[in-house]
Amino acid sequence: MKALLIVDLQNDFCPSGVLPAPKGDQIVPVINRLMDHFDKVLASKDWHPIQTVHFKKWPPHCIQNTVGAEFHPDLDSFKIDFVFLKGTGNKDDGYSAFEATNQNLVEYLQSNAIDEVYVCGLVAEYCVKQTVMDTLKNGFKTYVITDAVEGIYQNEEDVPAAFKKMKEAGAILITSKDILI
After folding, report:
1. Rounded CA gap, 112 and 106, in Å?
2. In the chain, what are the domains?
3. Sorting pLDDT into bands at 50, 70 and 90, what band is 92?
4. Does the annotation count 57 as an active-site position?
5. What is the mean pLDDT of the chain?
C-alpha cells in the first residue's frame, strides 16, 4: 500500500503567509493531481499554540485555529484521509510529521499496511526534510516528489542541499511525471 504524505501545505507557508515559500502556490495543482494515485492521502499541519518556544526561532505562524494554519484554499483537502497535528505543545518544534500529537504516524502507517510513503509539501529545508528522515528511520520505503516540494530559500543552496541530504539518507527522488504517466 502507498500513501501520499502532504507536509504543511498551510497558508502561513504560502506566498502571502508570514513564513513564505515563494513558489508554494505552484505545487498545489501538482499535489491535487497526485492524490487520486494513492491508497491513502495523509497530511501534516503545524498546529502551534500562541505561546511556544518555537517562536523564539521563527515568527509566529500556523497558530491553532487561525487562517494561517489552514490548508491552502486550492488544495483538495476533502481527499485527505487523516491530518497529523504537530508542534502542538509549548515546548516542541514539531518539524516532523512523526512528532504528531493527535495520532502516532508510525502506528497509523503500520495499521493501514502502508509500506511506501511519497512525501510532498512545504518547507523543503525543514519540515519536509525532517519528515523524510523520520520516514526512512522508521523503515518505510520513502519517495520525495521534488516538483511537489517547495522551500523558503533563506539561502539559495538550502533546498538543493536538503534534497541531497534526503537522497544520501536513502530517499528516492522522483517527479510527479513518474507517478502520473
Report:
1. 10
2. 2-178 (3.40.50.850)
3. confident
4. no
5. 97
